[in-house]
Write a structure and sequence with these properties.
- Two copies of one chain form a homodimer.
- With 304 residues, the first copy, chain A, is an alpha/beta fold.
- Chain A has two domains: 172 residues, NAD(P)-binding Rossmann-like Domain (Rossmann fold, 3-Layer(aba) Sandwich), CATH 3.40.50.720; 121 residues, 6-phosphogluconate dehydrogenase C-terminal fold.
- Chain A has twelve helices and nine strands.
- In chain A, helix 4 runs parallel beside helix 5.
- The longest helix of chain A has 28 residues.
- The radius of gyration of chain A is 21 Å and the shape is globular.
- The interface between A and B is large, with 112 and 112 residues.
């Protein structure tokens, strides 16, 4: 693979930016990678690991002469950082982001983008429950979707280049409009995360069931929820605050269904439950066929 | 390891019974394993795989002369099967079960147990989303808890032998009273399963978000729920119908918390969300330290 961007600036040095740096290097997609983080400790750690060619102290400094600027920071600070970097962006540069919410990010960032700079919002549907600069790895995006947002005003060449860049890191690329993205992700990500956080919170609350029991006996199902509920708190706070409407709508639907199933349990309606559980079983086969999860029992994990 | 039971009868030949057979053989815990299932196809498959020494057509036949009888069938049919085998049980034999609910199983089975036969209810906290005779494997119980139920009337020798038997299959053994078991499992297993089933059902319902999008973009969190929601429908129908009270109580607590978090999202109360998500993150560390889950990102699964 040949160099796609001569100079890439990573704003934020967490799981996603770190993984991008590893993946870019593996594929030789960037001439020079410069990274920055607001936190000195994060910069020092990234420096030690060495996944960037250069670590600088400010976002303004990082974006100077960059051909691609990646905003890999919590959704809630995208606007402020866009304002900060705007005067320093090179003409013809592309700015993208990796935020889990798209409408709010576009509203916050787009107004700051100078004429002659291309803003192409993005969202790689990849991650783990770990966060920070040490958690990144080159394979994170392999066979995972990266959704890019474009409209009739988006520069076609900038989009094509960014698509090639993500494909070079192993991702599958698709296009979507921002509002539809936010609704789809409310279903496949945001609502599931809030539900997992809630279930783990409830278990943690139950003083009658001691902590140690909840932990020791977690392999019966609960432990799966704790993985998701171990995700980065700042990132997820910002996701919910910035995709309120769609998330609350899906949670409303979820609550309705939950009440219907609770009522079936109370009434002893076994047929309703059995039919419901048979239907949900089928959807997993589709996910495995689509290459989006493993068929290995228990995700193939080993805990011995 | 030496033989603990000369003759073991497995009633039911699904994931748990199959795994027990494999694990017993590996450790040499049983002199002779006889298995049965109500379904001819299941018996044929088990015969082909060959994890039992003998497959018979009826439960009555299977338990004849057995030193240990394992009821590895859905919770809802435990009582009927206990009635069926009761006249054929050998004096001094031990009957156990592997049901996910304990109070209802005891109420259904105990009345049928003849004098001189020991009933020691059990529940191995192990499983996968797969079911049927082909899904079993010898390592399923390794480092997983098996909870045994005893009271002051339970024969101490029968309990000690069954404990040794489970330990021989790799399990950790603990004792618990039936009602406490049902409450703990409502938290660590039954409520999480119903919630996962519900979330997957909601996603399946949403016609605006096409099936293919929900499936393709599932790696953002949703796919984890689909694993749990792919569990055996009959088994889980019976769990909910037989642990109604505790499950509904935990689901009630869950709904309260969910409403509080939804309200925080609506109000834009980021501090509340951040504090909640920070607290839930901690519980996962405990589970990993207790050896009940892997610290590998995304459970270490490979989907490439």
């Amino acid at each position: 693979m040949s160099v796609i961007y001569n100079r890439v600036a990573l704003i934020g040095l967490g799981l996603i930016a770190g993984s991008m740096a590893h993946a870019m290097r593996r594929a030789g997609l960037a001439g020079h990678i410069v990274g920055t983080s607001r936190t000195a400790e994060t910069r020092d750690t990234a420096q030690e690991i060495g996944f960037c060619d250069e670590i600088v102290a400010t976002a303004a400094e990082a974006v100077r002469d960059a051909d691609l600027v990646v905003l890999a920071i919590p959704v809630g600070v995208m606007g402020a950082v866009a304002a900060e970097i705007a005067p320093h962006l090179k003409a013809g540069a592309t700015v993208t982001d990796v935020g889990s919410v798209k409408r709010a990010v576009i509203d916050a960032v787009q107004p700051h983008i100078p004429a002659g700079v291309h803003f192409v919002p993005g969202h790689p549907l990849a991650g783990t429950e770990h966060s920070g600069p040490k958690s990144g790895f080159a394979e994170l995006f392999e066979n995972r979707w990266c959704l890019l947002i474009k409209d009739e005003n988006t520069d076609a060449d900038a989009v094509a280049k960014l698509k090639k860049f993500w494909e070079g890191m192993g991702a599958l690329v698709d296009f979507m409009d921002a509002d539809h993205h936010d609704l789809v992700l409310a279903v496949t990500s945001h609502a599931p995360h809030l539900i997992a956080y809630t279930m783990v919170g409830v278990a943690d609350d139950l003083r009658r069931v001691t902590d140690s029991e909840v932990i020791e006996y977690s392999a019966a199902g609960f432990r799966d929820f704790t993985r998701i509920a171990a995700s980065d708190p700042t990132m997820w706070r910002d996701v919910f605050l910035n995709n309120k409407e769609a998330t609350l709508e899906i949670l409303g639907r979820f609550t309705e269904e939950l009440f219907a199933l609770q009522s079936a349990i109370r009434r002893g309606d076994g047929d309703h439950l059995h039919a419901y559980f048979t239907r949900t079983r089928a959807i997993r086969s589709g996910i495995i066929e689509a290459g989006q999860d493993t068929d290995e029992p228990n995700f193939g994990r080993t805990t011995r």
